[in-house]
Amino acid sequence: MRTEAAQRVELVFSLFDADGNGVIESNDFDLMTGRVLEAAVASDDGAKAAIRAAFRRYWTTLATELDADGDGVITVEEFRPFVLDPQRFGPTIAEFAEALAALGDPDMDGLIERPLFASLMTAIGFEKANIHALFDAFGPDAEDRITVATWAAGIEDYYAPDMAGIPGDELVSARV
User: Fold this and answer.
1) Which three-class secondary structure state does DSSP give residue 145?
2) Global confidence as pTM
3) Is 111 helix (H, G, I), strand (E, B) or coil?
4) Which of 61, 79, 115, 144 could form a disulfide with 92 if both were Cys (CB 3.0 to 4.6 A apart)?
């Protein structure tokens, strides 16, 4: 696993541990889902249902694949070596990427405006400076928008263990 991917794993673990108790559990995904849905007030019911299902599948996949001792929680030790395994998590990541990117496009024009992107990413728990650096790395158009496809692909790249120098690395870079 590349250094960049390892840094992304650590950040994802800390974000998924939404209640900050040092482990990932089902409740963390409920908390994160609630925060994301609060930020997605303009999205339709279908998009909201899709992100709920994607978060639920994410938790179910993690619990099934990584909860080695069956205690209902994922420790960082259980999480680190396996979460970036495309064979185990590829379909789950793809569903999540599609659902989150679609949530950012409530008017369904194929474009995501920076304010909603920032709101959704803040709801997940990313730092504001990193969020804006990521949006910039995606190459927004003159009206400060990115495509749904660009964001979805960026999410999938973020979880790829062999990727480096990707826009998603902006999320782990120290910002002042």
Assistant:
1) strand
2) 0.91
3) strand
4) 61
Query: What does the DSSP assignment read for 5-74?
Result: HHHHHHHHHHHH-TT-SSSEEHHHHHHHHHHHHHHTTTS-HHHHHHHHHHHHHHHHHHHHHH-TT-SSEE
How far from chain centre, in Å, is Cα 53?
14
**CA distance linking residue 176 with residue 174, whole number of Å:** 7
Reading the block at residue 131, the tokens are 């969020």
Per-residue pLDDT of the chain (176 residues; tens, 9 = 90+): 567 777 888 898 999 999 999 999 999 999 999 999 999 999 999 999 999 999 999 999 999 988 888 999 999 988 877 766 767 788 888 999 999 999 999 999 999 999 999 999 999 999 999 999 999 999 999 999 999 999 999 999 888 877 788 999 999 887 66
Which residues 6+ apart lie within 8 Å of 4 measured at CB? Answer: 163, 164, 165, 166, 169, 172
